[in-house]
Amino acid sequence: MAPTDIIDTLAGIEPGSALDAIRAKRLQARENAQKSYLSLFEPIDAGEFSLLERAAVAAFVTGLHGESPVATFYRDKLAASAGGAVLLETIDAEIARGKTSGPYGSFPAGPLSVENTAGLIYRASAASKPVLGVRLVAAFEHAHLLVFRPRDAASSDMKALLAAVWSPTGIVTFSQLVAFLSFQVRVVCGLRTLAGVNA
User: Fold this and answer.
1) How far apart are alpha carbons 181 and 57 in whole angstroms?
2) What is the pTM for the complete model shown?
3) Among 37, 74, 112, 158, which is 20 to 30 Å from 177 by CA?
4) What is the pLDDT of residues 125-173, one digit of tens each?
5) Could you tell me the CA-to-CA distances from 101 to 105, 106, 148, 173, 178 in Å, in that order?
């Protein structure tokens, strides 16, 4: 039996529904999104980016996007992970600390500079650091950068992850996970909006 499609589940898509038919027209995209979810959150070998860390990053990133079935799903996933429940309160506090709107940041000097926009530069609170540990602190700060200030990303940001004992392979997987979550939030939001329009 094939695993339940996570986007269908989060968007509330029933088999045989109009939205199911719409998604069936983009079967390869549907299958690839599911494969991405499974490889990122149910890998055969999590390597040095543990399942707990993946769930924690997912809860933080989707929480930054606002209340949604996706944020609830990953918060529940973290709560069900070994050692995850003790992180929930701290992550909730960091989501509140990091809430903002974007994207914003600065372009290199040139014609696009007129679009430069200042915004929050998120840093984890001193109170949260002992609970999260150096790896998750660095991950959260970098994830916030990727979500809200992608144009500001620089090599020094990668160095901060490396200094927090993230390997190059771990950084690649982490970046893929953050990108996937942003994609998933938008797709689910769009599908649920369509469902409301067609109701």
Assistant:
1) 10
2) 0.92
3) 112
4) 999 999 999 999 999 999 999 999 988 888 888 999 999 999 999 999 9
5) 11, 15, 7, 25, 17
